[in-house]
Please model this.
Amino acid sequence: MSETLEFDAIVVGSGAAGGWAAKELSERGLRTLLLEAGRTLDPARDFPPPPAKDTSKLQIWTRGKAFLDGQGMQARCMSFSRMTRHLFVNDRENPYTTERGAPFNWYRGRQLGGRMHLWGRNALRIGDSELHPQDEASGGWPIHYADLVPWYEKVERFLGVHGSAAGIPSIPDGVYDQPLPLTQIERRILDTLSGAWRERPATTCRIVRHTTDRRTLPVAAALATGKLTLRSHSVVARVLVDAQGKANGVEFFDGEKRERHEARAQLVVLAASTIETLRILLNSKSKEHPAGLGNSSGLLGRALTDHVMVFNAGPAPVEGAPRTDPYDFGSQSGLYLPSFRNANGKQDAPFKRGYSILGSVGRIEPGWFFMAVGEMLPELDNRVTLDANVKDKWGIPVARVRCVHGANESAMVKDMQATLLELASTCGLEVDHLRRESFLARVVHDVTRRMVYTKDGALLPGSAIHEAGGAPMGTNPKDSVLDAHNRLWDAPNVLVTDSAAFPTSPFQNPGLTIMALSARAANHAAQALGA
Model:
């Protein structure tokens, strides 16, 4: 059975980018269709109380069962547990491929709100020093911090952010509704670092306010306008174009019945998450766009990145129960150190760009953790293509992903590891993240390390869940895929508003910038349509 729907705008994906695009378009009066590949969540059924107390972070039995049940890849994610496994896809229904010897961990969530239900809610602005790096590794963005400021403010005021102004140029201060509460030991460590690491300014994290009703707030606001139609279980295969090569809709399948449908609109917004958005564009081949929609430059899918991540942890007293809601993943974070390598115009490290450190002490088992999160350079050989030999449950060719660390990332990882050990020593923290795990859990961890870590000791690419690039914004259609307002050069009525649009991958968590960029692009497109 085939069905054709008519709207002013279509938004594909309901996560960070899609939610804000839908909100902006519907609030400006456009009849908007929001297509979500997964289901709408039931707050009572999908967010039950946690199981009996289990201090294990590895949860080897849960992960082992998941391998048998078709979630072998998803079970490698740090956020995967008995409590969250239903928020991850089934790998058998949603496969992808990689090159031999180049593993990539693609963690995915198909439901209303996407991966936002597992987001740590770190809300960091990106300043001009990261938008326009001063080295020769790659070009900068076609916009400046000033272009994003009003949209950063709009997102922060709407969602609410807990944090404090710190006056650190690389993470410009935002609009905060209250300071972020710290544990006693975090306050002590912040004092210690301010004295011992004067050249490495530390502050508190900036965390989006937690809501317990499980709603995706931008989507809820869009629905309240009466202009948004939400359609779950709608798996988009490709963008449809007219004889002039301009987009006029999308083809999608009913996720449960596998029936084919079409939706028509003047504007199409792709916000399905980086790799999925690239997959849709590459699959949108036509006489007018034989290499995929938006690929006249040959750059579509190229220069994929994910943040470089190194993790360390150990035992420390957990102070009471500051996290009253087990699904409040933002409460796990407390301290933040923005990049101090190659900062303020200096090149003082044996690698380009920099990394931040996010930490938690006294909040969750085993007691403390710090993660170094760094920028990966965009290399053209790291890319998303289509694998015509493998198809998903709906018969759509799957993504083939290549994303590997190069020499720059390897040098950064060594520095990260040394810095995390120095931080632990300076703050009197014992390093042993398996201290409270069983002997069996330790053995399984050692045996399965290659599924999670690179040989250098970083998490495998993909594990940061900060995929970016592949459809970069730019000022010239010859060396970019999108213009400065996220429009495809080859089809200006198609927007890409997730992090596929990022020309580079700054060290900051991309969530806030994805939302601000998406709202900005949707607003501009709505104005162009006269809304």
